[in-house]
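User: My collaborator and I are trying to settle a disagreement about how two of our proteins should look. Neither of us wants to argue from intuition anymore, so we agreed to look at predicted structures for both before our next call. Could you fold the first one, then the second, and keep them clearly separated?

Assistant: That sounds like a sensible way to settle it. I'll keep them separate. The first protein:
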Amino acid sequence: MSSPIATLTTPRLLAEAIAPSHFSDIHRLHTDTLVMQTLSADGRPLSAEATKEHVQQAVDHWQRHGFGFWVFRHKSDGRFIGRGGLKVYKIDGKDVIGLAYAVMPDCWSQGFASEMGEASLEAGFARMGFPEICSWTLPINLASRRVMEKLGLRYERDFEFAGLLHRFYRLAAAEWQRSCH
């Protein structure tokens, strides 16, 4: 694997590796009731303490693996759009690279999740050489399922994650490569 990819640039967004300095933005995301309906295990906003723990775990993930979540801001005004990226998860006893994204509600339906996902996939496949990347969401999260499908991930099965039924999607590097060229 190459050196860490601490920053990303997309047509509309700038991203940097998540850091403790991003706490206030991540906490705004974690306390938004619309976002947390599909992001937290119980569908409720997270406390400041839980958000601090989440941010620290994300920072630790970067240190351990050399990749992780990025905080995405709009290029034009620096406005916080959301967070997304790649993380190692344990699924069915195996490590998988998971694609994740969360966008502030005032930015929904503007293609930001897809843009964050595209940048994350490009980093994971083209720059880090992962053989596959997976993603999953609650069955009710139709918007996230559409993003995954738009990005080329294919539904594989339903499974339990965080005690809840989720839809599991997968994309192989070879499939991603074919779709990009």
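The second protein, kept apart from the first:
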Amino acid sequence: MKRKFYSETMCCVACGASGVALHHVRTRGSGGTNLDHNLMPLCQEHHNEIHLIGTSAMAYKFDGVDEWLFKHGWEYEPYAEKWVHDLE
């Protein structure tokens, strides 16, 4: 249900395209959840790209990705070289 809602109502935070795929900021295999703060809406092209270059590179490349992360409570920990969230 949530995936259908996102894909029909949200736009890619990188380019604004409709028809998004949900990207888990923290992967399910790493303990990430399906809560809203962990599901970043991206078009399929940018969803593929974030898996290739990583979240930090995407945040640097696209202001919308950076803004989305901070708006949803994510912070980058440079010493740990990862994004952290209080709820994750």
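Some points you might bring to the call about the second protein. The first strand starts at residue 20 and ends at 24. Residues 2-84 form one domain.
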